[in-house]
């Protein structure tokens, strides 16, 4: 017989028999060599221990009050910590926007716009303008002119419940 991968080499029947015997010996490993058998035995032992708890003659540990080592006591000067934490965010930039009004247009109306076109907004003249921080309504105010520049005077800070009502607009 020849090996299909090595046609020049002849293999005797004794070689085949030895290889088969070796393979049969590997097919049935002893429990000592089989890690699965060890794991199953360990699992069964653990389950048996869970089902039959051994009686314990030791008293249960008593509950005791938490000491200062577990929870740090509050300090009188904790207000300075809050101020220091607040200082960390003071330099974060935000975007303030003043909104005159809104409207909805169709794409056809949008394409028909030209220089000099007038767009009607839902805001009324004299009505307070919305002041948005990063897109969230936080206040309302009125437009003022200071040295040839526009500005806004805050007239009302929006409460959380009013913010929800304004979102439905």
Automatic annotation (TrEMBL):
Residue ranges, compositional bias (Acidic residues): 23-36
One Gene Ontology MF term: cytoskeletal motor activity
Domain Flagellar motor switch protein FliN-like C-terminal stretches: 88-158
Record's bilayer topology term: Peripheral membrane protein
Similarity annotation: Belongs to the FliN/MopA/SpaO family.
Function noted in UniProt: FliN is one of three proteins (FliG, FliN, FliM) that form the rotor-mounted switch complex (C ring), located at the base of the basal body. This complex interacts with the CheY and CheZ chemotaxis proteins, in addition to contacting components of the motor that determine the direction of flagellar rotation.
Keywords: Bacterial flagellum, Cell membrane, Cell projection, Chemotaxis, Cilium, Flagellar rotation, Flagellum, Membrane
Entry coiled-coil feature ranges: none
Domain of life: Bacteria
Family matches, as NCBIfam families: fliN
Main localization category: membrane
Any Pfam family matching the protein: FliMN_C
InterPro entries (alphabetical): FliN, FliN-like_C, FliN/MopA/SpaO, FliN_T3SS_HrcQb, SpoA-like_sf
GO BP, sorted A to Z: bacterial-type flagellum-dependent cell motility; chemotaxis
Protein name per its UniProtKB record: Flagellar motor switch protein FliN
Subcellular localization: Cell membrane; Bacterial flagellum basal body
UniProt feature, compositional bias: Low complexity: 37-48
Gene Ontology cellular-component annotations: bacterial-type flagellum basal body; plasma membrane
Region (Disordered): 1-82
């Amino acid at each position: 017989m020849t090996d299909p991968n090595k046609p020049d080499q002849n293999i005797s029947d004794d070689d085949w028999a030895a290889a088969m015997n070796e393979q049969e010996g590997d097919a049935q490993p002893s429990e000592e060599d089989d890690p699965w058998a060890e794991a199953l035995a360990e699992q069964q032992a653990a389950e048996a221990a869970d089902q039959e708890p051994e009686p314990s003659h030791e008293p249960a540990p008593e509950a005791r009050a938490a000491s200062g080592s577990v929870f740090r006591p509050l300090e009188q000067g904790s207000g300075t910590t809050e101020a220091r934490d607040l200082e960390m965010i003071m330099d974060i930039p935000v975007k303030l926007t003043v909104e005159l009004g809104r409207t909805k247009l169709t794409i056809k109306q949008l394409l028909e716009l030209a220089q000099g076109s007038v767009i009607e907004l839902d805001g009324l003249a004299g009505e307070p303008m919305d002041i948005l921080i990063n897109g969230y309504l936080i206040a309302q105010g009125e437009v003022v002119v200071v040295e040839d520049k526009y500005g806004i005077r805050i007239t009302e800070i929006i409460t959380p419940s009013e913010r929800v009502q304004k979102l439905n607009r």
